[in-house]
Amino acid sequence: MTASLPLIGVTLDQEPGGPGQYSAFPWYAVRANYMSAVVKAGGLPVALSHMPCLAAEVVSRLDGLVVTGGAFDIDPALYGEARDERTPLLKPGRTQAELKLIEAARARGIPVFGICGGMQLLAAVLGGTLYQDIEVAIPGALPHEQPNPRDEAGHCVSVVPGTRLAGIVGRASMAVNSSHHQAVRDPGQAVVSARAEDGVIEAIEDSEAVFCIGVQWHPEFSIDPGDRALFAAFVAAARG
Asked: Are 135 and 182 in contact (CB under 8 A)?
């Protein structure tokens, strides 16, 4: 029975290591609820190391790919802009590995689910661009770095009717958490499938793919019933 579970690759964060950290040497990490969300949806999660040269080989063994978020920014060079003080922290090793994994997954046609920073990288892959800082770009925007705990909702999003996301969650709006200072400006070839009340893009999708959805919030916290529906639909697509 276990062998029938679709194998879901989950990308990892990375830290350089040092005094007072988990290790004095470089280490990987992933929040446990990413893994448990995949398990609850019927998938078998596996953590993916940052080895761009092996991305195609890794993806050849997978049934689906989750690109996770993290406290860092996507290199603006990926969408044709110069980096400035609005983009303070890059993780080039991680970004390069995730970029190659997304490209390999899309080439193979397996489901891709981008979460928070994973959605932003997916947007760049699909020819889109980002706001390097929401507060600068959109005066009066919502506090997308919500002050309350991340396992609580920070704001609501409106789901665009007729999109794949709308079909999955079965609702016109969702209560979501929010932990980002950058956002998708132009979705490129992707379709916008949700927006926050201030107009910020909160979800994108590639309508030509079997499942290629990015969300700006963290559905692994299962705050809204639509979050569980998203993971269920992703794993179902991977099983198919």
From this structure: no
Domain that holds residue 132: 2-239
**Nearest in space to 193 (alpha carbons), one of 183, 208, 205, 182:** 205
Whole-structure pTM over 0.90, yes or no?
yes
- Is the per-residue pLDDT at 1 higher than 50? no
Q: How far apart are CA 235 and CA 237, in angstroms?
A: 5
Residue 197 clears pLDDT 60, i.e. is over it: yes
Question: Do 196 and 174 touch, CB atoms closer than 8 A?
Answer: no
Structure tokens at 21: 């950290």
**Beta bridge partner(s), residue 66:** 10, 113
Domain total in the chain: 1
How far from chain centre, in Å, is Cα 158?
Answer: 18
Total residues found in the chain within this entry: 240
